[in-house]
Amino acid sequence: MNYLSYGVIGALLILLIVFIYLLTRGKISNTADYRGMFVLGIVFVPVGIAMNIPAFWALGAIYVILGLANKKKWGERTKFSELPPEERKIKIATTIILALLVLFGLIVYLLVR
Question: What is the mean pLDDT of residues 8-26?
Answer without folding.
Answer: 86
